[in-house]
């Protein structure tokens, strides 16, 4: 079975690869802490010769789906870099800020973006799965 089985037009290959890290390095924090989330996106090696597949932008979204932080946009196509990053600072965490934050990265293809989430948890508190 091919790598693109079930995806006949190769859209997956056009999507950036995304990683999220935090500073301090953790995903459990005390109430009142401030953390910096960094989203790093890069194009896939096989897309290097296609400038329209290079990372164009990175956006951060809060748990309600609202854009937060900087709107990171690469310069014009000729000046783009292969690895691009964007930070979002969460200041003085309150209980309602402990949730999933989403990083979205895309290129010149409007529907070819990658979303990745980062779960910010309260330090020392176990969150039990929701049962229906």
Structure, explained:
There is one protein chain. This protein has 132 residues and is an all-beta fold. 0% of the residues lie in helices and 40% in strands. It has strands at residues 17-23, 28-29, 35-42, 57-61, 67-73, 83-90, 100-106, 113-119, 121-122. The chain has a four-stranded antiparallel β-sheet with strand order 5-4-7-8, with no helix packed on it. The chain is elongated.
- CA distance, first residue to last residue: 37 Å
Number of helices: 0
Mean pLDDT: 83
Task: Return the structural class.
Answer: mainly beta
- What percentage of amino acids are in beta strands? 35-45%
Oligomeric status: single chain
The largest sheet is:
4 strands, antiparallel
Fold topology:
Blueprint (H helix, E strand, L loop, with lengths): L16 E7 L4 E2 L5 E8 L14 E5 L5 E7 L9 E8 L9 E7 L6 E7 L1 E2 L10
Parallel strand pairs: 2-9
Antiparallel strand pairs: 1-3, 3-6, 4-5, 4-7, 7-8
Organism: Pocillopora meandrina
Protein name: Ig-like domain-containing protein
Key features of this structure:
40% strand, four-stranded antiparallel β-sheet, disordered N terminus, three-stranded antiparallel β-sheet
Summary, kept brief:
This protein is mainly beta and 132 residues long.
């Amino acid at each position: 079975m091919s790598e693109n089985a079930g995806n006949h037009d190769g859209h997956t290959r056009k999507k950036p690869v995304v990683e999220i890290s935090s500073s301090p390095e953790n995903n459990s924090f005390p109430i009142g802490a401030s953390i910096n989330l960094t989203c790093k996106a890069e194009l896939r090696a096989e897309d290097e010769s296609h400038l329209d597949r290079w990372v164009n932008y990175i956006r951060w979204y809060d748990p309600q789906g609202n854009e937060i932080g900087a709107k990171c946009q690469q310069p014009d196509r000729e000046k783009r870099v292969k690895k691009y990053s964007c930070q979002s600072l969460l200041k003085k965490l309150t209980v309602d800020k402990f949730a999933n934050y989403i990083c979205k990265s895309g290129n010149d293809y409007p529907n070819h973006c990658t979303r990745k989430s980062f779960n910010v948890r309260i330090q020392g508190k176990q969150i039990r799965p929701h049962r229906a």
